[in-house]
Structure prediction request, 177 residues.
Amino acid sequence: MAEIKAIVYESNTGFTKEYAELLSSIINVPAIPVIDNSMIFDDREAVIFLGWVCAGKINGLRMARLKYNPMIIAAVGMTPMSDKYAFVLAQQNNIDVPFYYLQGGLHREKLKGFYKMMFKMVANPILRKAKKGKTQLSEQEQHMLDLIKNGGSFVCRENLEDLIKKYEEINSVLKMS
Prediction:
């Protein structure tokens, strides 16, 4: 196996694509959507995969595993970054390679259909709890409330630093083999 050939991603509202393109500009490896067949690789080519999270599922991961050999996997979601959440996602998605969770953000106007409905199911209890004002919101609930009310993006290079280090480590080993 040569080296990691691409960053393959599945994006819904654009944050995963932003991370993929940012990572691409840093490590000088092309970023392509998982469904893009314009770049022809050998079977099971080594890639980095980034997918968006919905209800604990990393979207696009199944297809990426069928077409490529993901050497590093990252999930992008609204939830603040935490080791505990990353561990749970890795278990739920049967991940056995280096895994990273990256906080993306929220663009409510880009949510459509089923995902808009799911967002409302998550957001409404937090909004009701905040309106009552009788109960104290946890730090995570307050963070989510701010994101729900204002939207925003958390995409930044600093969130990719550990993933970049792992990429450099894995790629140097792959180049030697």
User: Anything to note?
Assistant: The radius of gyration is 17 Å. Residues 113-132 form the longest helix (20 residues).
